[in-house]
Q: What sequence folds into this?
């Protein structure tokens, strides 16, 4: 075990996986010489050479588009999108090809691509550096999505993504890149996709979140008089419905938290799954605490947008009093 | 780098003032085999339009008059080179031995029409415009990084050069010295939009200059010129000199697809003139002038192609209905448990 930040854990995962499998290559903007704008890929170019850690032209659709061809030629590409909002140009390749190509080959070829990117707000950055685009990805058939909330999971989920035979998008909450630190297993460490985690055990209300909102929920739990259980779902697709439904079965009360804008966000999917499969367990409505249906605000006002522990605690109190 | 030459390369003469040229390395047998390939494509296309009218296949993208571009370039490829087609090249696999029923099954929406790209080194038919250009580039770059000598070719139309994916792919190709050929089938139309509404570039081959790669213009109705330009581009690629952009000039003298009515936008006189000068007839006359082709061989090629199409449509119509299970079978290697929730 070693004490690492989340971004150091990402870097560790890339070193370990590239050492293990020489078909893995990293490509993206500024990933080589600079080691990535967040230093996630630092040291890879020196260690594995410029052919396996490639500084690409500034073209996100080109990165993902060429990665499809690289996969067809026998590589396992790990693409970095410099910021989540810079990934929007690559949605064309993601939707029209990444999620469909295996299907298009009638299941004969594998496209083991990984697309990783920082996500989310709270870092006081210019416009289009703080979005939460997970719903676009998770809505795309053929694509899996994971979001870690701890350094150990950042390493383990990325390793699982790189090893997965299907395309996986890994969103790394950038507000957690440098703090808090956490214990990270040395060497190979894999956290299977599709397994949620109980971040805090409790009995009265379930707070469900992923990424940076897990920490928000843990802080909300401290504000409550009741006993809150916090479920960190870690993997949006595949989704660990079993753990979610077990927690709801125990508490009967649910608050779903997401940083992304509310409408058709992943929280709505979670709420729908619970409503469909656990309606008789519920003692009150499934409440959502989310971002608003507006562009992520001017950063001096970002605290007005991001769900806070107070907003989550207030929602939990409402459903507890229902 | 100076602007690309605007000269259009031609080898086939007109039988009058313009003399026929020759291509190095193609003997009579290869020239005849090329002819049979063109006849097969032409027959596939003409029969497919009929099958569509008879309700036996769905909407079909017509490639009548584009056979020279497809057959000429394909002949230049090595067996291990990969082809990345657009829908206009749906039947290009026939030139590598793919049976017609596979392509007909694609146009019938039957799963038998989706193939393993490795079997014929042929990527899937790409429906969206230009987005497969980066795939070809990535494949070629990836093969080079692995120390292999295989190249890739991407086919796309003039309209595709307006797309961002074309630009990103071409730029990546040049920066990575990818051994790839970017073959633009400039047939002057993107459905109803003429080239003049697509670009202000004097020549599409000029775009290559901006990427730092050679741009070559060939007569897309001259199968030998297309072959020669592609062979040169592949030789460059294999020598480590990177990508080449080829603009093959032709004219779409047929509707875009079976659902298209071009009478609303095209010039009938021009279309008639272009049809009279179509690529298969030009090559056939060339071969006859050279004494390589006679009536008997021509009839044999056409009869053989027609017989293969008849077998193909019978085979595809004889397929059992697809197993509904394939709806779920192919999207993931390791599917999420929610796959069947609906």
A:
């Amino acid at each position: 075990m070693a004490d690492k930040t989340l971004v150091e854990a990402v870097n560790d995962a890339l070193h370990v996986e590239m050492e293990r499998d020489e078909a893995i290559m990293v490509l993206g903007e500024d990933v080589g010489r600079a080691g990535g704008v967040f230093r996630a890929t630092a040291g890879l170019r020196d260690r594995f050479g410029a052919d396996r850690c490639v500084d690409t032209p500034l073209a996100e659709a080109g990165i993902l588009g060429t990665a499809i061809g690289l996969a067809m030629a026998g590589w396992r590409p790990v693409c970095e999108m410099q910021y989540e909002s810079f990934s929007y140009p690559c949605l064309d390749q993601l939707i029209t090809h990444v999620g469909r190509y295996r299907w298009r080959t009638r299941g004969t070829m594998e496209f083991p691509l990984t697309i990783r990117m920082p996500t989310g707000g709270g870092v006081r950055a210019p416009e289009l550096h703080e979005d939460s685009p997970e719903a676009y990805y998770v809505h795309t058939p053929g694509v899996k999505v994971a979001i870690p909330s701890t350094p150990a999971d950042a390493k383990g989920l990325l390793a699982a993504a790189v090893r997965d035979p299907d395309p996986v998008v890994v969103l790394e909450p950038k507000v957690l890149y440098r703090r808090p630190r956490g214990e990270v297993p040395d060497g190979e460490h894999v956290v299977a996709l599709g397994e949620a985690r109980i971040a805090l055990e409790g009995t009265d209300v379930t707070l469900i979140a992923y990424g940076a909102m897990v920490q928000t929920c843990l802080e909300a739990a401290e504000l409550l008089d009741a006993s809150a259980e916090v479920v960190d779902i870690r993997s949006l697709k595949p989704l660990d419905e079993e753990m979610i439904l077990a927690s709801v079965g125990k508490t009967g009360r649910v608050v779903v938290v997401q940083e992304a804008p509310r409408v058709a966000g992943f929280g709505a999917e979670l709420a729908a799954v619970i409503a469909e499969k656990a309606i008789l367990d519920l003692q009150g409505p499934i409440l959502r605490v989310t971002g608003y249906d507006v562009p992520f605000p001017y950063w001096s006002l970002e605290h007005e947008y991001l769900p806070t522990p107070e907003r989550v605690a207030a929602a939990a109190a409402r459903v507890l009093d229902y | 780098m100076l602007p690309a030459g605007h000269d259009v390369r031609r080898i086939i003469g007109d039988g009058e003032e313009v003399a026929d040229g020759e291509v190095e390395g193609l003997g009579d047998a290869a020239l005849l085999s090329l002819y049979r390939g063109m006849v097969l494509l032409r027959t596939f296309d003409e029969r497919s339009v009929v099958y569509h009218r008879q309700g036996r296949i769905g909407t079909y993208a017509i490639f009548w008059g584009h056979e020279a571009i497809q057959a000429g370039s394909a002949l230049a490829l090595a067996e291990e080179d990969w082809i990345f087609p657009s829908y206009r090249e749906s039947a290009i696999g026939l030139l590598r031995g793919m049976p017609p029923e596979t392509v007909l099954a694609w146009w019938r929406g039957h799963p038998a029409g989706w193939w393993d790209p490795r079997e014929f080194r042929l990527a899937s038919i790409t429906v969206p415009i230009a987005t497969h250009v980066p795939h070809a580039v990535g494949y070629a770059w990836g093969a080079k990084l692995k120390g292999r000598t295989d190249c890739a070719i991407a086919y796309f139309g003039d309209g595709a050069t307006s797309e961002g994916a074309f630009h990103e792919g071409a730029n990546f190709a040049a920066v990575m010295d990818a051994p790839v050929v970017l073959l633009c089938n400039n047939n002057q139309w993107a459905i109803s939009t003429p080239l003049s509404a697509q670009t202000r570039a004097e020549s599409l081959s000029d775009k290559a200059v901006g990427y730092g790669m050679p741009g070559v213009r060939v007569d897309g109705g001259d199968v030998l010129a297309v072959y020669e330009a592609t062979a040169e581009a592949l030789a460059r690629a294999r020598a480590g000199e990177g990508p080449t952009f080829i603009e093959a000039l032709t004219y779409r003298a047929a509707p875009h697809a079976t659902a298209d009515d071009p009478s609303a936008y095209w010039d009938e006189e021009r279309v008639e003139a272009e049809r009279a000068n179509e690529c298969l007839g030009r090559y056939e006359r060339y071969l006859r002038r050279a004494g390589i082709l006679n009536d008997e061989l021509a009839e044999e090629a056409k009869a053989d192609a027609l017989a293969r199409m008849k077998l193909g449509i019978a085979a595809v119509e004889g397929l059992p209905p697809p197993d509904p299970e394939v709806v779920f079978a192919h999207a993931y290697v390791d599917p999420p448990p929610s796959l069947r929730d609906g």
Remarks:
- Chain A has twelve helices and 14 strands.
